[in-house]
Design brief:
Strand order of the largest sheet: 3-2-1-4-5
Number of helices: 2
Mean pLDDT: 86
Order of helices and strands: HHEEEEEEE
Number of strands: 7
Oligomer: single chain
Distance between the termini: 107 Å
CATH architecture of the largest domain: Beta Barrel
CATH topology of the largest domain: OB fold (Dihydrolipoamide Acetyltransferase, E2P)
Radius of gyration: 29 Å
Structural class: alpha+beta
Shape: elongated
Number of domains: 2
Strand content: 25-35%
Amino acid sequence: MTRIAWEIAAGTVAIAGIGAAGLWLAMRKRPTPEELERQRRESLAQSGRIVDGMLLDVYEVDGENDCKLSMILFSYRIGGVDYECSQDVTSLTDVVDPSQVQLGLPCSVRYQPGNPQNSIVVAEHWTGLRAGMPVLPSFRHPEPNDMSKLHPDQS
């Protein structure tokens, strides 16, 4: 084969490859918004940093197709900057019941270090919600003259 024949063959193969790649890009299945949100939650649950936050509100908003979306509003502070964010927990009913969320309690928030407003409180395999306020242990006050607790070997 001559040099021109090789160039024509290489050009034909290159054009066919570009056409096949373009066809694949046009025909591939794109992720739905729900799949993108699930991937975002998984990414933050695996690699996000944790900071203390506060649960502010639980409310419902109207979504597409006359459905109600359950939202959790929370706040947190990073580097002296206050953030208020909300998260749609409609698809996470097996993890959290919005009617049982106690407002005003602290929570844990996972956020993306380079983009702190990208944050979550609940994911499929992680939750920053707490069951209630921590209960501190109570101790019996010893008698003021009782020194047996200080020196156990002396009675």
